[in-house]
Amino acid sequence: MAPLQIIGSGWGRTGTAAMREALITLGYDVHHMIVIMTDPTADAEVFIEASQGKDVDWNRAFGKFNAAVDWPSSTFYKQLMEVYPDAKVIHTTRDPEKWYSSVMNTIMPATEMMNKPGMPAHVVNGQRMAKEVIWDGEIKGEKDKDTMVRKFKEHDEEVRNYVPADRLLWFETGVDGWDKLCAFLGKDVPSTPWPHVNKTEDFKARTSNFRDGVPLHDMTPVNK
Q1: What's the angle, vertex CA 154, arms to CA 153 and CA 160, rounded to 5?
Q2: How many CB atoms are located within 10 Å of the residue 23 CB?
Q3: What would the pLDDT profile of 62-116 be if each residue is shown by its tens digit?
Q4: Where exactly are the structural domains of the chain?
Q5: Which of 68, 46, 41, 71 is nearest to 57 (CA)?
Q6: Mind telling me which Pfam families this protein's record contains (predicted)?
Q7: Would you state the CATH architecture of domain 6-214?
Q8: Which end of the chain has fewer beta carbons closer than 10 Å to its terminal beta carbon, N or C?
């Protein structure tokens, strides 16, 4: 087991894919929703069990990882902070209304596509987990703009109040970059530009392959 050194508390579509790439560049092995959707061996069920209040072995999800960002890990940031007391917390965030627009133009349409017949079993399991843990769980099925923007702001405020300041990096996507991240982690700043991945147009182009019969696991690789 590789204990988590980094826990991401930011929701999906807050720059978590770029943060994942940045952390990989810095040498971390990073769990992200894309792992669940691309790796047939990934355990999505553990997140459902945790959402039901069951005691779970988090090694089932994070056994080969030492960092976790994005949904569904961010849903359980409080529990993970207790299990991994030495882990630092990175909170990615962005303008709430832009976040809502991004979600409605990416994750929501992709969710519908994942329900079509013939999808790989691990994608179906990941979609079921996302529905139970995130959309019907954390979001509670309320997807109108005012409610989701309010919930986003409430989550930001909760994290700011809950996580000790010396353990938290508040990361504004589109504003912050290598200097802030590396100072927090005690790493040298890479010479490469900050990654810009999984933008709305990229997400749409990738997930459009669902309609063309391209298996999801052929589209975006997990950590190697």
Answers
A1: 90
A2: 26
A3: 999 999 999 999 999 999 999 999 999 999 999 999 999 999 988 877 676 666 7
A4: 6-214
A5: 46
A6: Sulfotransfer_4 (PF17784)
A7: 3-Layer(aba) Sandwich (3.40)
A8: C
